[in-house]
Amino acid sequence: MKQSRNLQFLKQILAEHPFTKSLAPDQLEFISEWASEIHFDRDEYILLEGEEANDFYLIDQGQVVLRTYISPSQGFVDVQYLGAGDVVGWSWLIPPHHWHFSALVLQPVTAIVVDGKQLRDKCETDHEFGYEIFKRVSSMIGQRLRRTRKQLE
Predict the structure, then answer these.
(1) Which end of the chain has fewer surrounding CB within 10 Å, N or C?
(2) Domain count of the chain?
(3) 110 near 85, Cβ under 8 Å?
(4) Is the pLDDT of residue 31 over 60?
(5) CATH code for position 67
């Protein structure tokens, strides 16, 4: 995992990413203050099921598989594949703030990592911002459930 920060690059990616697109300029500015570019290599885990969830990742390039551990005999089961335009991680917003899945990099990833703790705090004090973020996270969870259901059919 390598991390870098170029503010103009971050603002451009945030303005275009489906999760943050069309946020008010001040909301986008706030998020950009708590964001940085990050890179993950193939076979790296971005997050691990059960660990504390304090960040989330807006994928710009690459591919990730969300997986969950079933049992020692079955090991991990792949739940969903994510790529450019997707978000890895919603558990930072929903108590008890622990990852529900693991995320393994299949193809090298460039992403924007955002400090979820700072966003949680902002959501508590700025309810308009909090409502906007909650709508987006809720929509993402709904999309994940629909995709997962299709996989099970």
Answers:
(1) C
(2) 1
(3) no
(4) yes
(5) 2.60.120.10
Quote the Cα angle for 91-141-29, to 5°: 70
Q: What is the pLDDT of residues 138-149, one digit of tens each?
A: 998 898 888 777
Closest-CA residue to 134 (of 100, 92, 79): 92
Read out DSSP for 37-55? EEEE-TT-EEE-TTSB--E
DSSP 3: E
Q: Look up the pTM and report it.
A: 0.89
**Strand 102-115 vs strand 45-47: parallel, antiparallel, or unpaired?**
antiparallel
Place of tokens 């090298």: 108
What residue spans of the chain are helical by DSSP H? 7-16, 25-33, 116-125, 127-152
Domain holding 75, by residue range, is 2-152
